[in-house]
């Protein structure tokens, strides 16, 4: 695969960049932090989306050095922001399962000086379920360090409820497919309400992904969602634009 060959060189050629998507608190419309989203500046193909290369990075094992770079870069950038802002980082299965994972996280925190409470890691159900025997102690170790754990794309998998019971997640990120239907689909609204109940029952922050309209935002506030993320509030942006947003110059 041509892309996997080029992916191998992308790190040392400095072709990766992190963009940051704002996360907003619904209680007071305040900025809570950002989710780091990787971008690959391919010399010929232009900007390659993570959906096109993360799976290749997983298959080839390149996700380990790439994931390490993401953690370091995200922590370094967030360390320069005001102290109330958090940074969320996505983890993939083989990155999480690699024996260097925990030391990589600790090194990223140490070298950046970012307090662990300001780092949030996002895992999907597939990360959790790949090896529950391994996932649980790892998640507990992260939590013990003070790092927050979010469950990503919630509601799209097969056994969402069982892993909620198995581990005390700090945040539930409801998949955007449920937000899209909130205005005219009774089923989506019912799920939104159920997730608010689950969040309060498990003492987890609820976050709605993919918020694109004012009506959706209003409805999520009414229903008591904790946080929101989506094009209405801001797309993923380069670090300089994120700073402008933070310091109110945009
Ligand atoms: O940013 P969008 O921007 O297109 O991201 C698409 C998908 O890629 C999302 O599911 C997101 O979780 C994943 N993704 C983005 N950045 C990273 C990353 O740094 N590591 C991993 N493992 N996944 C990422
Ligand atoms: O799977 P994960 O949630 O980590 O990835 C976030 C993905 O969702 C990214 O690809 C990002 O570009 C995309 N995204 C963020 N906000 C919106 C939105 O409001 N609408 C849509 N359709 N996609 C979004
Ligand atoms: Mn995510
Ligand atoms: Na998601």
UniProtKB/TrEMBL annotation:
Domain of life, per UniProt, equals Bacteria
Residue ranges of every copy of the EAL domain listed in the record: 1-250
UniProt protein name: Bifunctional diguanylate cyclase/phosphodiesterase
Q: Which organism is it from?
A: Rhizobium sullae (Rhizobium hedysari)
Name the lineage: Bacteria, Pseudomonadati, Pseudomonadota, Alphaproteobacteria, Hyphomicrobiales
| Full-sequence range covered | 410 to 659 of 668
């Amino acid at each position: 695969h041509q892309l996997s060959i080029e992916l191998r060189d992308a790190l040392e050629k400095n072709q990766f960049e992190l963009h940051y998507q704002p996360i907003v608190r619904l209680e007071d419309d305040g900025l809570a932090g950002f989710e780091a989203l990787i971008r690959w500046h391919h010399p010929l193909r232009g900007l390659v989306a993570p959906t096109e290369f993360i799976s290749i990075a997983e298959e080839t094992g390149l996700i380990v050095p790439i994931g390490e770079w993401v953690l370091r870069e995200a922590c370094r950038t967030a360390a320069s922001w005001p102290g109330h802002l958090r940074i969320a980082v996505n983890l993939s299965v083989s990155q999480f399962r690699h024996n260097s994972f925990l030391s990589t996280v600790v090194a990223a925190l140490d070298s950046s000086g970012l307090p662990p409470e300001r780092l949030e890691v996002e895992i999907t159900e597939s990360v959790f379920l790949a090896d529950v025997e391994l996932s649980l102690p790892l998640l507990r170790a992260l939590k013990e360090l003070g790092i927050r754990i979010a469950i990503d794309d919630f509601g799209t998998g097969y056994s969402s409820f069982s892993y909620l019971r198995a581990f005390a997640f700090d945040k539930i990120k409801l998949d955007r497919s449920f937000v899209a239907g909130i205005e005219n689909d009774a089923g989506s609204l019912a799920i939104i309400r159920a997730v608010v109940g689950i969040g309060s029952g498990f003492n987890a922050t609820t976050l709605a992904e993919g918020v694109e309209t004012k009506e959706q935002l209003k409805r999520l506030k009414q229903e008591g969602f904790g946080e929101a993320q989506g094009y209405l509030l801001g797309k993923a942006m380069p670090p300089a634009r994120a700073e402008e947003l933070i310091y109110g110059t945009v």
